[in-house]
Specification:
homodimer; alpha/beta; Rossmann fold; 3 domains; six-stranded parallel beta sheet; five-stranded parallel beta sheet; 36% helix; 12% strand; EC 4.1.2.- (chains A, B)
Chain lengths: 819, 819
């Protein structure tokens, strides 16, 4: 064990914001005994879940048949989580606080489940797991058992908004939950393994964005138990003074609790918790009465950000578990990470050791003859929705309200003649977002997040209704910084994503705008969120939450400034690998379709919506009414762009998805009409990519009949797609017409160059598309050979021109649609 | 501008490891003038690249035709980078140091190119860009111009190992370059925007892993210019004391330099650089002479990690650029991020302002009548390979040596009878890696990285040849920690990936072992590395480097402890979207094939190799010789597993890729042989996934003839694939037999359950595969209906059994292949 005496930190309780020393004995003997009983009960139940499938109260000596055949789960972190839960119970009761806890070391599922069962939340959510001996048996058996509950904290866990399987996101989730929840205390246990991850490290700086007036408080508890799976942790091995500096450097005021003597640790932890809550209240009171920094809303205010408390809890890994197993140390080492006694079913000595371990918690003192927790055990437990397993904040769908979306007519661009005007679609969307921001000014349940790109993505109209959240110094030259802002900008996609997930899962709304290429930074996070939603949707007690909406812009085709490193349209491919009931992908081709799609996704629930749209001037193709109808269908024929006259089947289908491909397809259609007027050309635009999938594979998938009516069963289809071309094949391979499908898209031919050169390099340009058509339609007039050559000639001319002039050919730069 | 006077930091020069005050005037008048001239020249050249396509020396007043038609690039960070480069030149010369610099704010491409041209490295690499007026004109014109060079630091940039487009990885790259390069100083400029990212934040802790004996030094220069694209940066706005605490908490000893008066900043910067280099030498000398902490190789040593210096450089963004443009402040604000004067081609006032700006550097003092830099400008420039643009360490292919790989026979498992024995493939690989570690003990050019999972992934044999790198406290209970270890474990996939990239690009070898699901954490990093390799391969002066090799294990089918959150096989899909000449994907089905694949990838150059292999006991199917032959083909018929007798065509092909799918397919083949012996079954195993692709799309792609010979053109193919099933369709959709291809794989039906239940949930189990065959082969005997029902019955039985017992059906658990 790393330490043997508690070392209360260096600051006083009371209203003083910082400095001094923690009081050592804040608990009476009875209080201490009750807290310890609760902790022991939780520890007992944690061990029981990992090992037992019978004899939960040890009414008889343990036999092999009481032991699960497969021992799965994580003990090491559980006693620490149980300690934190016990003491959170105490301060919630004592201070009358609404609280939520994010369990970073969520692999300690047994601990959180144990506490939820103790406080009754679990049995209220799952009545078959009652708070008695039968329920305890069920609680034990179901854990990590086929058909039972996962080994981690998960959507199935009452009170949770955070799956603990992938480490790094707890603190960002906690801040997301705290934003615009002024009366909520969000505790967040951070494992010392998790603390090594990049996303966690970045999220410490979230305090620079937390408004003490309108936001709640986050209380991080950095739990140093010293070891990961197989290694010591960096933070636990730093010299203590250095760790203290690190946390102060992150902007916090650390309270240190450490030891392995439960009595002393209980006193120190109670004292640290009281001090933390008192300081938080002091900061909030000061800010909210306008008496101090943070209370002023003047953007030029120079008030300092408050220093929020953080608790550093240093206790042994696997504390109270077997000190040694088979002659090697286990408690206080990495060996206690999962299942400290592996052989209990087969090995009587191990089984005896397990039984001693379980009995060391004195279960007879903790549970009555029916298996229910005794009163003393429950003395610290808060009431009703104050219980961590019962807070509505962890079931955000119960709290979410309809977002007040204004009529789109106010923002739509007028389309008198198709393609006659151009707008920057995201700028048009910015006006809509500004209105949403305005409409939620009092409710404060909408946030826009992005990595320093809101203006770059041309959404800056939103600043007219809310500035950018910022608690650090403000200089006179700064613009739009706002201590109470709801636009969130930090150059960390991870933090943006984590904040937004926490905000949504606690019942609010939001949008994440991101450069298309760099959203891959959060690939793994969105995986976890999709998995969360998939699981949550199947739980009747979880109410639907607002969707996680991405606006991906500054996309692959327009990286004029940045080139190859900023070109990657593969996020769509990534999310489409995931559960089809959760994921939606939209590629609106112009400003009005973007408005319609945005309106749709902002109203939706329980989805991850990916919207890809450009920020550069883009031709306006559809009126708002047409856009709505087109988006409702998700894919449709643009009769006006082809040669449709209702009398004949097309010779070829030109399909497109995405703003730049749509422009190229329309230009190609115009070229074909001019040069090969006898050719029957159909133009199909796809907004909702999942419509291409079979009905059986995605709820939006078109029936074959509809697909065939759109794309034909036997005519060549030349499809210009925004991203990697094979994605379209992967979606459409079961369709009858698939053998005739030819897809163009981005194929990693990227660099810093002009917009048109980008499409030429990737064979997505209008001239290439015309050539593709000529190559595929049988029986064309002999003239087609010359037309094809003319197209190839323009491409050759392009290459020479661009190297000479650095700009696009005038006929391309000045091109407009002639309807 | 944020500051107006320089504030030299709080520590002395000389050998003292820390504390005291920086000397204020270390430069003589002439030295200062020469450094300033170099800096001005670099600034002039940076501005020239952004704006000019003619008149590079301003021999006549600027006219519109001298200005590029599209103004692209980033000015804001450039003067700061130029300052750092100038002063690095000085210390390299003065201290006779081998150095490399990683430019985190790599969007400042103009700065790095300017310095490279000044020192002559650029013209030596690209002789057409000579160090004279014509070359300067070319340097300017080519920048961010179609057919020219990218706007960021990139593979095309001499001296670079780091593409600056995606922020966050500079410091990890720098540490990777420093490992096992004891005489190298790796400077690393970190932008204050970049410093907000998670990966960067985590990588500060790399000092806990840097061995002062065998590794070189990293000198981070945190460049606070105050703003990102549109926002202030968090670190620049922290109270200075808090930032100092943060860096101390990260384990460094900060040296502060700030100001906007060039003379004062030059003095302060020279002093800080001298102090930093002196301290680094002191730390290294002490460690290497065994006189102090870090010098002891005893794993139990308690020596403290040294505190390495970091320079905090605070200068205005866009320093020396236009103070105001059109009445708003630009220098010292975010407005100088890209192109401070946007309208110079059209607007004479802007053009005049640009000319004044360029002339403010007094180009006539800097360049002679031929346009070559004058002697004074070059006074600080080091010689030959000491120049940052000419160091061989930045062109690692020049340094890389053949990895000494031992004969595989020493590690191969004996296969007397197929499927009669089982081995954990990664454990077998661990023995090979141990031998590689041993063979490189003196050369020190091989490292194994992983996020705390080396032992979990069963590679721990490697500890027999090298412990785990660790510079923090060591406790008696710890195992395998080693101050000089080359196994790297930190719970940050980002840091692991960054370290390895830096290590490989400087000419060494390595392997990244990772849980399959969590490698998505580095999706975006691997994107950038693949893009780097693609570009580098096309540059004749860049020599090939060792491949980046992933071992993905603890895979989707065996997440017994962790369940759904740990299940994602999509990394393969992600990399297969990238440049086919760079990416390779292998799924060895047993221990010997894993050995053969590992041997191959460790010898390869300039690839990203993804190897997916299990750590759980797996049947041994192939002898080493067979494995080699099979891996060389990449895909082949396993005659012994099917009913091949050379006389008849198969009725059905059972294909498989991956260890678990292979087992299920072999079990299905055995069931078919028993129950439908008249059916001609072919078993095909695929190791190299890219063989399925068309020849035109991937260099490993099979010709159609070969594909057809393997899979037939018209027989049903039931393909059991390790990952998402549609990937196989996406690879094979052009093949003649594609309409008959039916793929099973992972479809997000995940949870904590038994191994066999996982395959049942995803319809990949042997019984389902047999049913698939029966459903697809026409004209089967009527008995097939009963066989199909029997298979369905086992699946039903499975569901009941598992809920009751929590284990797999005995007939599955005890199954072995009967050859």
């Amino acid at each position: 064990m790393p330490e043997s005496t508690p070392q209360p930190g260096g600051v006083p309780s009371g209203d003083a914001p910082s400095g001094g020393e923690l009081p050592r004995e804040v608990l009476s003997g009875e209080e201490l005994a009750a807290l310890d009983a609760h902790w022991r009960a939780a520890n007992y139940l944690s061990v029981g879940q990992i090992y037992l499938m019978g004899n939960p109260l040890l009414r008889e000596p343990l036999k092999p048949e009481h032991i699960k055949p497969r021992l799965l789960g994580h003990w090491g972190t559980s006693p620490g989580l149980n300690l934190v839960h016990t003491h959170l119970n105490r301060v919630i009761r004592r201070h009358g606080t609404d609280a939520l806890c994010v369990w970073g070391p969520g692999h300690g599922g047994p601990a959180v489940l144990a506490n939820s069962w103790l406080e009754g939340s679990y049995s209220e959510t799952y009545p078959d797991v009652s708070r008695d001996e039968a329920g305890m048996a069920r609680l034990f058996r179901q854990f990590s058992f086929p058909g039972g509950v996962p080994s981690h904290v998960a959507p199935e866990t009452p009170g949770s908004i955070h799956e603990g399987g992938e480490l790094g996101y707890s603190l960002a989730h906690a801040y997301g939950a705290a934003f615009d929840n002024p009366d909520l205390l969000v505790a967040c246990v951070i494992g010392d393994g998790e603390a090594e991850t990049g996303p966690l490290a970045a999220s410490w700086h979230s305090g620079s964005f937390l408004d003490p007036v309108h936001d709640g408080a986050v209380l991080p508890v950095l739990h140093l138990n010293g070891y990961k799976i197989a290694n010591p942790t960096v933070l636990a091995r730093l010299p203590e003074a250095e760790l203290d500096e690190l946390l102060r450097g992150y902007g916090y005021d650390p309270l240190h609790v450490s030891g392995d003597d439960p009595t002393l640790v209980h006193q120190a932890m109670a004292s640290a918790m009281d001090t933390a809550v008192t300081r938080i209240r002091h900061i909030q009171r000061t800010a909210r009465t306008g008496a101090a920094p943070g209370g002023s809303s003047a953007p030029g205010g120079t008030g300092a950000r408050p220093r929020w408390p953080v608790i550093v809890l240093r206790t042994p890994k696997g504390w109270t578990g077997p000190a040694e197993v088979d002659g090697v140390p286990v408690e206080g080492t990495w060996r206690s990470h999962q299942v400290p006694l592996p052989g209990v079913r087969e090995d009587p000595a191990h089984r005896r050791q397990l039984e001693e371990w379980l009995r060391s918690y004195r279960p007879e003192e903790l549970f009555d003859e029916h298996g229910a927790p005794r009163d003393r055990v429950l003395a610290c437990v808060p009431d009703g929705e104050r219980r961590l397993g019962s807070t509505r904040h962890a079931n955000g769908g119960l709290l979410v309200r309809e977002l007040p979306l204004p009529p789109l007519e106010r923002f739509a661009v007028a389309v008198e003649r198709r393609g006659a005007t151009r707008h920057e679609p995201t700028r048009v969307l910015g006006d809509l977002l500004r209105a949403v921001m305005s409409a939620t000014a009092d409710r404060r349940d909408f946030r826009l997040v992005g990595p320093d790109e809101t203006a770059s993505n041309r959404l800056q109209a939103v600043y007219g209704a809310s500035g950018k959240a910022w608690q650090e110094r403000v200089l006179p030259v700064d613009e739009h910084l706002d201590r109470h802002g709801r636009v969130m900008e930090i150059l960390s996609e991870h933090t943006c994503q984590g904040w937004l997930e926490g905000y949504l899962l606690t019942g609010r709304h939001g949008l994440f705008s991101c450069y298309e290429a760099f959203v891959h930074i959060v690939d793994s996070m969105v995986n976890q969120h999709i998995k969360w939603l998939k699981t949550a949707r199947a739980l009747p007690w979880r109410a639907p939450v607002a969707s996680l909406n991405y606006l991906l812009t500054s996309h692959v085709w327009r990286q004029d400034h940045n080139g190859f490193s900023h070109q990657d349209p593969g996020f769509v491919d990534h999310v489409l690998n995931k559960s089809p009931e959760v994921v939606r992908v939209y590629l609106p081709p112009d400003a009005n379709t973007l408005l319609s799609v945005a309106d749709h996704v902002l109203r939706s629930r329980d989805y991850v919506n990916v919207v890809v749209a450009g920020k550069q001037p883009c031709f306006d193709w559809l009126s708002l009414d047409e856009a709505r109808a087109h988006c409702a269908r998700g894919a449709g024929v643009w009769e006006w762009a082809g040669t449709e006259d209702g009398t004949r089947e097309p010779d070829v289908v030109l399909a497109c998805a995405g703003d730049v491909p749509t422009q190229e397809v329309l230009a190609a259609a115009a070229l074909l009409r001019r040069h090969l007027p006898e050719l029957a050309v159909r133009v199909v635009n796809v907004v909702d990519m999942t419509r291409l999938m079979p009905r059986e594979e995605h709820p939006h998938g078109m029936p074959d009949r509809e697909y065939d009516a759109l794309f034909t069963r036997d005519r060549p289809v030349v499809f210009a797609y925004h991203g990697y071309p094979w994605l379209v094949h992967r979606l459409a391979y079961r369709r009858a017409g698939h053998p005739h499908l030819h897809v163009r898209g981005y194929k990693e031919m990227g660099t810093t160059t002009t917009p048109f050169d980008m499409v030429v390099r990737n064979d997505l340009d209008r001239y290439r598309l015309v050539m593709d058509v000529i190559d595929r339609v049988p029986g064309l007039a002999p003239r087609a050979v010359a037309v094809r050559q003319a197209m190839a000639d323009v491409r050759t001319r392009h290459h020479a021109w661009i190297r000479e002039h650095g700009t696009d050919l005038p006929e391309v730069a000045d091109w407009t649609w002639e309807g």
